[in-house]
């Protein structure tokens, strides 16, 4: 054995649904002690390798052998064979189902990994404030290639053939959009990057701009060359100060190096980029409202057509794309349309970044090929739900999307499947909910948001959403009737059909999808006046179970409104007319004496 | 740096940085030195990545370890912020999660100096493309 310490890395994220890791770790440690190697070989627990299909895995570091499907019983063999004798335990190597060959190391196993980073390729890797680090990682090579070797039409064709669709929500084919913008003749045209990112809980675009701003700048310049524009504008919310700061630095550095500005790398092509700030209104993410906001007008949408590609910023043809859409462009140019279109499903190509949040262990940003299932995302990449709570629903698409349930878990995620299931891709927020989340409350939460964010220009959205919200409020207070449920649905349909912009056209989606998938919960609210999840305050009570209460007085002391009374060592009582249902006593009680009814 | 005038100049600059011929100000790829990337997007910074960054910069110098500390954006591991990636010369990168200054100290002493791993490593659980 070399003098260098060997390590055995055991995948034992606290979150792993298979939960063998700790036992394997203990078994390995015992075996090592048995042969007095505990000081030479270190066993460490790591988070998930992303190889769950082959899990649990043990990796020998630094040499890199990966053992799969390991159980605690295998510890002896790993220690005796591999560590002591230096022979690989063939039996535990992964067998490639296609070739029947054993795979010895992680590199060839990566095909099992669910995540694929195209958009996030440089996030966490390059220094966003150093253009040379970006160049070292391949930034601006695609721009150079397009400017020196291609006609605009050729580059547009590559983007078209790649099947790239807009990641801002709508999923419009990007190459086609560029082609339309190119065909519209004008003395001036604009390339706009939509970095408004208004969905609550979403932070994909922010992360890309903070981690890899040059990817976006480069793609905007490529787009400019393709459509015949020299002016780029990035519309970003002022609430993203770090992203703004890094963008500014990136733009300055790109200009210094001759990668933006006049005569880019000596090709005679001019393209420069300015930043425009948004005040953070959700509706300003809608492209026509965004353009008006940049023009200094009120951030209100206008009817399409005319589309921005015909008449956009200052009445000139304008191409609006999302941050993530732009971030896909350079790899497509360099690796080709066929490469990109080989990833994903038939109609949705490439990958999608999601902000995974809510009741899921591994909260964070993930990027998966289109066509990955919700189950894979939530239970493998996301590590399942905390505290082993039962999965209830997953919300995709933010305020424009809907709640999907158990039965949708095996649906491959792409633009069309999500719409068919009653939700939508949106920009990529994904919020996981468990059994204690009330679906009426969820619908109400999103309606709250839309009512707040509606610009008020058209009546269905301005008034209709408010009425929807009132109805939901009514139901969650226990005053609802079955007729209210019909009213909810009818009104939702009318709002969708008659609103002017995408905000109103999609705002009833959270209501409709919860009505479709969780009707029983609505019925419990209106018939039995009960909230099954125990979330709607007006439909629940905190009660003290006499038998369990030891009279420790802990609850009485935390109650902020002194609703709890009782003598020391005697069962306590909650005065329901005073209780504000904050749940402080429920959290505090160590004896399970307080229940929710 | 003077303005790049052609594709060739861009490609050459890239090659010079990668081969270490051009001492770029973050010494990519830091031959023979330990390279630490501190993931400093909004999530990382909100969880304390700036303290970790400052700690690493001062402590590497104090403890006479030759290396570079680089600020990057977030990796996306929000559940384990702040995260840092450490690459010892000639080895594959290792990402550590939930790093505070206490853990950073442990990482310097155990891993950077002696190559010993600690619990709480986040393996690269994704495939990625290279350009
Ligand atoms: C209410 C509303 C909000 C929107 N918010 C955003 C947003 O935050 N970011 C974004 O890129 N697109 C947003 N869009 C979509 C844009 O209107 C537009 O379709 C998109 O920026 C086009 O880029 P893409 O083709 O690259 O997706 C929103 C649309 C609506 C109706
Ligand atoms: S649908 Fe709503 S947000 Fe859109 S224009 Fe009408 S009022 Fe404004």
Topology (SSEs and partners):
The complex is a heterodimer of chains A (597) and B (131).
Chain A: E1 6-11, H1 21-34, E2 41-46, E3 58-61, E4 66-67, H2 75-85, E5 94-95, E6 102-103, H3 106-109, E7 115-117, H4 131-136, H5 141-149, H6 152-162, H7 174-183, E8 190-195, H8 204-211, H9 213-227, E9 231-237, H10 241-256, E10 272-278, H11 287-294, E11 318-322, H12 323-335, H13 337-341, E12 351-358, E13 364-369, H14 374-381, E14 391-396, E15 402-405, H15 415-420, E16 429-434, H16 439-453, H17 459-476, H18 482-498, H19 502-506, H20 509-517, H21 519-526, E17 542-544, H22 554-558, E18 564-565, E19 573-574, H23 584-588, E20 594-596
Parallel strand pairs in A: 1-2, 8-9, 8-11, 9-10, 12-16
Antiparallel strand pairs in A: 1-3, 3-4, 5-6, 12-13, 14-15, 14-16, 17-20, 18-19
Helix pairs in contact in A: 1-2, 5-9, 5-12, 6-7, 6-9, 8-9, 8-10, 9-12, 16-17, 17-18, 18-20
Chain B: H1 7-18, E1 34-39, H2 42-46, H3 49-62, E2 67-72, E3 84-87, E4 94-96, H4 101-114, E5 121-122, E6 126-128
Parallel strand pairs in B: 1-2
Antiparallel strand pairs in B: 1-3, 3-4, 4-5
Bound molecules: flavin mononucleotide and iron/sulfur cluster.
The site of iron/sulfur cluster has 14 residues of chain A, from helix 17 and helix 19.
